[in-house]
């Protein structure tokens, strides 16, 4: 083993129920993978060159933010004020605000500018123990600008202390150039943008905003079909503002996740369960938009649909770069348990990205992506906000401490 973490309380988050806490634990790492995860009893570490004493700290899988719009320029604080003065989100969007206002600013920004802005936002997620982040495009809505956003995301992924997955969301809104011609724009997405993103290996997945102010189920199906033809996985922004059946469609076509889902009905839940599609909950947008329609949490539980939680970090409806805040909101707004919330940002979030075979739990052969916390119980991660509980993150076995003195890391 290259590195050993010992004297820790391990929260494995493997597929079985419960946290699966291992007291007096030890994690052995080689070549960025977990080679041992269990009790430290009777393990002879004498003479091992790299042993890190965690001093009884709690260790979880590194947290995963499986839905973000991290790359954009400008901000929409003015729209925040409009909504608080009673203007509906749909009205703001139809008047050229909403997504399109961010599109204009993002098109005007250079790759370097977008990179610097995104890295600053990413720092907030890192402080919450996040080791993997999904980043969507969707604020370019031209071939060049969508690819520009994805190139920035790939560049962020070159950082050694974070892992990035990329999602093409060209079908996020109808661009002004295609006003009144949404079918023509979908043709452009399917025939030009998706093939280019796949050819340049810039996207891991393709997403669609299937909604009355977005795109229809028929248009979404065309995008999903094109994505799969180019070897890309699919996801959906679905049932956020109404029930169009987008979740059931996406699930039937093999989507790894459907996200938002406040208006998901019984048939939609059944479709998710039948196709092993993750339901990604975005409590930040629910909170920020002051929504009143709750996701069907109990139905999802009854049909054993895995639930993920993500920040949905974006300038218009969830400008909150804190995954632990989302965990707290999952408990307080959606009545999830702390265990469900921790699963939502570890093993279930990994599944939402199609990464369940490598991340999101502490087990043999998994990536050595961990978060080390100065807390007594895992429930504290959902319970408390604003206290710097994170000691260090581990990415591919490399330790990135917030307080190196606590771990004696050189």
Automatic annotation (TrEMBL):
The main location class comes to cytoplasm
Q: What class of enzyme is it?
A: hydrolase
Q: Where does Fe(3+) bind?
A: 67, 69, 237, 312
Q: Which UniProt keywords apply?
A: Cytoplasm, Histidine metabolism, Hydrolase, Iron, Metal-binding, Zinc
Q: Which gene encodes it?
A: hutI
* General function of this protein: Catalyzes the hydrolytic cleavage of the carbon-nitrogen bond in imidazolone-5-propanoate to yield N-formimidoyl-L-glutamate. It is the third step in the universal histidine degradation pathway.
> Amidohydrolase-related domain location, by residue?
58-375
What EC number(s) has UniProt assigned to this enzyme?
Answer: 3.5.2.7
- Is Transmembrane helix set as a keyword in this record? no
* One MF annotation (Gene Ontology) recorded for this entry: imidazolonepropionase activity
Cofactors: Zn(2+); Fe(3+)
Cofactor note from UniProt? Answer: Binds 1 zinc or iron ion per subunit.
Source organism of this protein record: Photobacterium alginatilyticum
Report the domain of life of the source organism: Bacteria
Q: Does the keyword Cytoplasm apply?
A: yes
Q: What is this protein called?
A: Imidazolonepropionase
Catalyzed chemical reaction(s): 4-imidazolone-5-propanoate + H2O = N-formimidoyl-L-glutamate
Location of the protein in the cell: Cytoplasm
Positions of N-formimidoyl-L-glutamate binding:
139, 314, 316
């Amino acid at each position: 083993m290259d590195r050993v973490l010992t004297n820790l309380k391990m929260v494995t988050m493997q597929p079985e129920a419960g946290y699966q806490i291992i007291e007096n634990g030890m994690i052995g790492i080689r070549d960025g993978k977990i080679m041992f995860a269990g009790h430290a009893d009777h393990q002879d570490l004498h003479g091992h060159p790299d042993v890190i004493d965690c001093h009884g700290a709690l260790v979880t899988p590194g947290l995963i933010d499986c839905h973000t719009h991290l790359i954009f320029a400008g901000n929409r604080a003015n729209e925040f004020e409009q909504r608080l003065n009673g203007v509906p989100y749909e009205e703001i969007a139809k008047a050229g605000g909403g997504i399109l206002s961010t599109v204009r600013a993002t098109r005007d920004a250079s790759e370097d500018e977008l990179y610097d802005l995104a890295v600053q936002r990413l720092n907030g997620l890192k402080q919450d123990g996040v080791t993997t982040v999904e980043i969507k495009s969707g604020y370019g809505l031209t071939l060049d600008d969508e690819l520009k956003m994805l190139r920035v995301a790939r560049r962020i992924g070159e950082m050694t202390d974070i892992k990035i997955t990329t999602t093409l969301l060209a079908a996020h809104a109808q661009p002004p150039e295609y006003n009144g011609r949404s079918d023509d724009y979908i043709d452009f997405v399917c025939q030009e943008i998706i093939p280019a993103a796949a050819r340049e290996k810039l996207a891991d997945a393709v997403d669609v905003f299937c909604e009355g102010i977005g795109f229809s189920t028929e248009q979404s199906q065309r995008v999903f079909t094109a994505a799969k033809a180019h070897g890309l996985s699919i996801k959906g922004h679905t049932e956020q503002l109404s029930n169009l059946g987008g979740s059931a469609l996406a699930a039937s076509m093999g989507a790894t996740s459907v996200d938002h889902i406040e208006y998901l009905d019984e048939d939609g839940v059944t479709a998710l369960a039948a196709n092993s599609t993750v339901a990604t909950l975005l409590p930040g947008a629910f909170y920020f938009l002051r929504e009143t329609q709750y996701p069907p949490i109990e139905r999802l539980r009854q049909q054993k649909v895995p639930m993920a939680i993500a920040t949905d970090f974006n300038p218009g409806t969830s400008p909150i770069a804190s995954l632990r805040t989302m965990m707290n909101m999952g408990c307080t707004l959606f009545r999830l348990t702390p265990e469900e919330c921790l699963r939502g940002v570890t093993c279930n979030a990994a599944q939402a990205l199609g990464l369940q075979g490598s991340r999101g739990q502490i087990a043999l052969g998994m990536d050595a992506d961990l978060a080390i916390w100065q807390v007594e119980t895992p429930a504290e991660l959902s319970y408390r906000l604003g206290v710097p509980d994170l000691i260090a993150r581990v990415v591919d076995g490399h330790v990135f401490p917030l307080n190196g003195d606590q771990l004696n890391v050189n």
